[in-house]
Amino acid sequence: MQTAPPTSILLGDRSPADFLDTYWQKQPLVVRDALPDFQSPLSPNELAGLACEDGVESRLILKDGGEYPWELRHGPFAPEDFTELPQSHWTVLVQEVDRLIPEVGALLDRFRFLPDWRLDDVMVSYAPTDGTVGPHLDNYDVFLIQGAGHRRWEIGTTPVENETIVPDLDVRILENFAPDEEFVLGPGDLLYLPPRVAHHGVATDDACMTYSVGFRAPTHRDLVGDFLQYALEQIDPDTRYSDPGLTPVEHPGALHDDARTKVHDLLHGLLDDNTVDRWLGEYLTRPTRDRAAAPPRQPLSAEALTDALRQGTDLRRGPVAHLAFLEHDDGTATLFVNGEAQALDADLAYAAPLLTGRQVLPADTLTPHLDDEAFVALITDLVNDGVLELDAT
Ligand code: SIN
Ligand code: CO
Description:
The chain is α+β, with helices and mostly antiparallel strands. It has helices at 7-10, 16-22, 44-51, 79-83, 97-100, 102-105, 220-234, 257-270, 273-285, 302-310, 351-355, 363-366, 373-384, and strands spanning 29-31, 58-62, 71-74, 90-94, 119-127, 142-148, 151-155, 181-185, 190-193, 199-203, 208-215, 315-317, 323-327, 333-337, 340-344, 360-361, 388-390. 26% of the residues lie in helices and 21% in strands. Strand 14 (333-337) and strand 15 (340-344) form a beta hairpin. The chain binds succinic acid and cobalt (II) ion (CO).
């Protein structure tokens, strides 16, 4: 049976509150032995295997030894692509490994002091000696966990406002990178970087595997654009501006108060709290990269599911499972699952915090509720939609 691991180890002797206050979105942090027992769940060969799979986003970056310096190749690759690589100076990177390998997904349960929706994915890289993606910056927060081998990091300490990129390369490399700090990280060590802090990691041996826990931060344009689309869909296409109470205007060229009030009211009406909340929950749980949960090959009966839970089998999230909830003043709740809102009445509202916010749902947190038919129906549906699955590991 798995329980949520303590985050205090991840952050050294800092509490999550101290970390957020001092470092989050502000300055880098190195934690030695953040995950003392961490052993890379993947070998370099297994990672290369993932990079050969259809539907998996992967890249190869060859600093030297490619067709030209800093060559970028996109997967899916063929196994021969890896046998033909040079001895050194390259990196393979695979996105969304948390969705592909449950042991990597479980790593996310170390980050439960942060809102779930902010987590994007775990990218895993392997590099032989001198492999690097070059000095660069990312627009997102990232926790870089050294999974195996060693990597020398050079980093800046403050976010860069305007960067200059080396022109005409496949990859975005900073032109004038002047690091403030340098150190080597080994297995279990962690580097947190706020958005836009420049960094340059270079493998110092042939075993270097780095796990990047990346975050998402929608642009204001993304947020507003998506809301406007949603709001548009709520409006009856046949309802028009109307003014049966119109009285003679003082000046025909003036935008008169009645018209302005009508339009202001229409727009303000779109920002009703319930509309915004529902849109936000749907937006933030919408699967990234247009993915959808895949139902299991064989549907599971409620009896089979409750039996498995009673025998101690945990539930865990399927590969595409974005969950969030909102509690309402009247005791009801809304559960958001992969971009869809589901109303939970007051008797079932307890299920929302129970089922969200973690990768693995331990059986013993669910078994006390197995006499509640509505609860069993809810989790059976989630399993049969492919959102949750029995943890076979
Ligand atoms: C890597 O894993 O090689 C690169 C990670 C990063 O610098 O963002
Ligand atoms: Co980076």
